[in-house]
Amino acid sequence: MKTTVGIVVSAIVVAALAALPWYGNSVLVQFGISVLLLATLAQGWNIIGGFTGYASFGNSVFYGLGAYGVAIAMVQLKLPFWVGMLLGLGLAVVFAALLGLAVLRLRGHYFAIATLGLAFIMTAIVSNLEIAGRNIGLVLPLLKSDFLFYELALALLVLATLTVFWLSRSRFGLGLIAIRENEEGAAVMGVNTTLYKVLAFMLSAAFSGLAGGIYAYYITFIDPVGVFDVSLNVKMIIMAVFGGPGSVLGPVVGAFVLSTISEVLATKVTSFASMFFGVVIVIAVVFMPRGLADFAERFRRLRFRYFAENVRTHRL
Amino acid sequence: MSLLAQVLVSGVLLGGLYALMALGLALVWGVLNIVNLSHGALIMLGAYVTYFLFTGAHLDPFIALPITAVVLFVVGYVIERGILNYVIRGPMFNTLLITFGIEVVLTYLAQLAFSADFRAINPSYAGANFALAGVTIPLVQVVVFAVAIGLTIAMWLFLLHTRIGRGIRASAQNLVAARLYGVDPKRIYALTFGLGAALAGVTGGLYGTVSQINPYIGGPLTAKSFAIAIIGGLDNPLGVIVGGLVLGVVESLTALYFGSTYRDVASFGVLLLVLILRPKGLLGRTT
User: Fold this and answer.
1) Taking the CA of residue A207 as centre, how many other CA atoms within 13 Å lie in the half-sphere pointing to its CB?
2) Is residue B270 part of a domain?
3) ipTM of this complex prediction, to 2 decimal places
4) Which of B61, B82, B94, B255 sees the fewest Cβ atoms within 10 Å?
5) Are B239 and B155 in contact, with CB atoms under 8 Å apart?
6) How many domains does chain B have?
7) Where does residue A137 fall: left (phi above 0), alpha (psi -120 to 50 degrees), or beta otherwise?
8) DSSP structural state of residue B151
9) Cα–chain-centroid distance for residue A215?
């Protein structure tokens, strides 16, 4: 019963979002594209960070590879957009597999920092590659169809969310959660931890890469500093953690809520907007450290004691 | 040959500052188990404090350092007691995120208060240098190197031989046992974070005399501090000296042979190699 209601509500929401280009103005559609891409990134991060418990700072690298896949295919090789998407996807997934085998042996902060270091390396390497336009970047052919990009981004987000939904109830997904909770325990229970972690990393990379590909063609100009941006990775983490890491809809809701607030602030009080993310992070982490999903679940019972309870469990 | 010698010398001199830069981060990480992403922002604040003591109160930057250290110690102490203390037992993402949030806020406030202009701390002796065996050595860099290495070693001795130092090390090793022996973890944690901030502040003051400062220098410095802390290993406080020197020399050599655009590839490449081959650091115990 509960699932049926959930499916119906989700279908209505998706239909309403898909119809947005017909009733919304162009500003709203453009805002929609960036929110949908961010939500996809947060959802992709959710697979490796939320489910598997590995705080990846390398997802912006996959995003950048996806973007450069499309750019190189279209500008240098004169291939159509969809071939570029496949190239970007391939680059991101293969890179995630190779990288995963090396760095997924590291735990906790060490994994986070190894992937962070990688982001800096990739920026520098791509800035020196002739085929990638060095540090000047590449200019893609212009396609003025926000409608197409919007629907593509929405389709990708739906695909990512369905994948995460499947994870939440499949053997594979439960294996990932087991790794997050207790890696040795999972290994003892027969989970092939290396394989599972690398697969999760590749899956996460696939969505980041595809989002990067759409972004490249939409924005028509990419450069290394712009698409391998670590702060984009931090944004994904904030959105996923704010929404509820390891939940199915949390990262999407987190992305929508935070982007909307940030957009409204940017138009109302411009100077404060850049500090907004910092303040939100500090407040959210102190008072609702398990995200919106947990808040929705427990606030009804605990009321305002919910906040006090959170502080009490996590303080020294 | 003399070019190589020159590059090596400047790499080593830079490495001393790198060691001090990473020490505060490594200390906080080792004791509180928090990777402080606002470390670079604290370095930036320290640089501005020293800058204003120099331009406003006409204090020599090296004389101003103790004042900078005290100011930043207070800032760090307040941040720990006021914010970090409430999330310290939460999941790792949260401590990473909250320090990142603090970084964003500090950077924004600095930009508001000091504007985004580049500034440099230029005492009258800034251009002085001397020649040694055909290598030109800037005086300021030598003093910076000496202060940085001296402070790193002093910090090491402080941790080894004082009552508070022993409390800090005990908390890092086993918090429960430390509590049973009468260590107050709240106080030790705040003190440690304050010390980390003070070290960041001094690094900032020194950094301002050898390079330019603006409100955005923090992020890359945090990343570099990580790399140094990991290359050296967290087990031994002197590891940062090894890490700092390695990174300083590798960066200088890369800039010489491959061009300065590859500098970050080299430094983070070394970081990745060390993480994969010796996750406990060059000085760390192998498992």
Assistant:
1) 31
2) no
3) 0.77
4) B82
5) no
6) 1
7) left
8) H
9) 13
Residues in CB range of B3: below 8 A, 6 or more apart: B256
Axis-axis angle for helices A250-268, A230-243 (nearest 10): 120
Residue B134 predicted with pLDDT over 70: yes
For the beta carbon of residue B111, count every other beta carbon within 10 angstroms.
Answer: 16
Tell me if B282 is assigned to some domain.
no
Amino acid symbol at A206: A
Q: Give dist(CA B186, CA B167) in Å, integer.
A: 12
* Domain coordinates in residue numbering, chain A: 31-230
| Residue A271 buriedness (CB in 10 A; 0-12 / 13-18 / 19+) | exposed
B230 and A110 within 8 Å at the Cβ level: the answer is yes
**B188's tokens:** 């030790």
**Bridge partners, residue B131, by sequence:** B136
Contact A154, A18 (CB under 8 A): yes
Kindly state whether residue B186 falls inside one of the protein's structural domains: yes
Mutation choice for A interface testing from B85, B86, B234 by most A CBs within 10 A: B86
The tokens describing A191, both together, are 């989970």
Rounded to a whole number of angstroms, the CA Rg of chain B reads 19
CA angle at A254 for the pair A251 and A257, rounded to the nearest 5°: 150
Partnered with residue B119 across adjacent β-strands are B213
Give the C-alpha separation, A247 to A169, whole Å: 11
Q: What residue type is assigned to position A232 of the chain?
A: L
List the single residue in A with minimal CA-CA distance to B188: A316
Are the beta carbons of B272 and A114 separated by less than 8 Å?
yes
How far is CA A36 from its chain centroid? 10
- 3-state SS, residue B243: helix
Domain with B208, as residue range(s), is 2-218
pLDDT, tens digit (0-9, with 9 covering 90-100), for A156-181: 999 999 999 999 999 999 999 999 98
Please name the residues in contact with A162: beta carbons below 8 A apart, sequence gap of 6 or more.
Answer: none
User: Which residues of chain B lie closer than 8 angstroms to A103, CB-CB?
Assistant: 272, 275-276
Q: CA-CA distance, B287 to B284, in Å (whole number)? A: 9
Give the predicted TM-score (pTM) of the model: 0.85
Place of tokens 């570029």: A84
**CB contact at 8 A, A165 and A248:** yes
Q: Residue A113 and residue B276: Cβ atoms within 8 Å? A: no
Q: What are the pLDDT digits (tens) for A11-38?
A: 888 888 888 888 888 888 889 999 999 9
Collapse the DSSP code of B132 into the 3-class scheme (helix H, G, I; strand E, B; otherwise coil) and give the result. strand
